[in-house]
Amino acid sequence: FNIHEGSIEAVVHGYKNGFIRPEEYNNICQCETLNDMKSQLQVTDYGNFLQSEGVITSRVIHAKATEKMVNEFFEMREWATAPLSTFLDYISYEHMINNVLKLISAKRSGSESLDVLYKLHPLGLFPGINALTAATDIEDMFETVLVDSPIGKFFVASQQKDFDELSLEYIRAMLQRNYIESFYDFCLSVGGETAMVMCTVLEFEADRSVITTTANTIGMRDILPGDRRKLYPNLGCLVDIQDDLSMVEDMDQLKDRLKRFPEFYNLMDDDRNISDGSKSLERKFVDVSTQIYRDALSRQYQYGVFYGWLKLKEVEVSNLQWISDCISQNMKSRVHEYVQF
């Protein structure tokens, strides 16, 4: 961990000090209007980020908060050199994958291309992504743009040719598996404290992917146990029971398979059906992951601080979106439901 990387680490720790504090969240949650929320945000690290905006909406608040986060990330990326620059690229790859999945979903549903492009995450933009809207199918997307894109290797690694015959959930899980495994191998190659911290983080992300993929594919007749098994990252605490997990047919069986792993078993909820249970599970994973990201951010002389900062910043932006939605939709009674800090 050289002197140059240490200076960039100091920058990210400076950004960490700009997180909204609990007392500031309490003030923001008490706002009656979005203009009140704008005033409260002015006394935080966000300052006058809404000053040039005319009409304040929840969409504007989310977009401008995201813009601030992305600008700070790209500022660090601009100063970084290898291998830190590659590490930061890996962070952005996840957003690139999510953007491509949005475009695939839009292509299949017949949504307007311009509307979808507007909704893409700015951290996941890459040269040629706009051209994907003109592709006729996923194979065309791959041949014309994705093969030469930063995330093309995650498609190639799948050794899968008939993308158009696969469900979106299958493609999502497949790309997530390839991404996690590749990121894990890279962190191992960096070694030192970065490997210690980030491999722990990515093992959790792998286990989360295994459980959510299993839950989300329950009842999907076109995904057989063997197909589901191929979607699991080959790392994490659950590696030894992945064969068993691939066979589950309902949420009760999934919970039963997780009895040996109390940290995951306790996240399951008996009182909900499959659909609601998946949503509850996702929310609980966010709560658990927040603590993991805080731990990564607290460790010195390793790259996990950048990963932890961005993940926690995304939680903060999500908080602001939820609060502003509650205010604009007159749902103040629910404002604390999904705020995580």
Keywords:
341 residues, mainly alpha
Please give the structural blueprint.
Layout lengths: L2 H14 L5 H8 L4 H9 L15 H22 L4 H26 L3 H7 L18 H7 L7 H5 L11 H23 L1 H26 L7 H5 L12 H4 L5 H7 L4 H4 L8 H25 L5 H25 L13
Helix pairs in contact: 2-3, 4-16, 5-9, 9-10, 10-15, 15-16
Q: If you had to describe this structure to a student in words, what would you say it looks like?
A:
- The structure is a single chain.
- The protein has 341 residues and is an all-alpha fold.
- It has 16 helices and no strands.
- Helix 4 runs antiparallel to helix 16, helix 9 packs antiparallel against helix 10 (192-217) and helix 15 (274-298) crosses helix 16.
- The longest helix is centred in the N-terminal third of the chain and has 26 residues, at 84-109.
- Residues 271-278 have low confidence and may be disordered.
How would you sum up this structure in a few lines?
This protein has 341 residues and is mainly α. Helices cover 64% and strands 0% of the residues.
Coarse shape: globular
Tell me the radius of gyration.
21 Å
Tally of contiguous helical segments:
16
Order of helices and strands: HHHHHHHHHHHHHHHH
**Major sheet attributes:** none
Number of strands: 0
Gap between N and C termini: 29 Å
Percent strand equals under 5%
* Computed structural class: mainly alpha
Mean pLDDT figure: 91
pLDDT < 50 stretches: 271-278
What's the assembly state of these chains? single chain
The portion of residues assigned to helices is: 55-70%
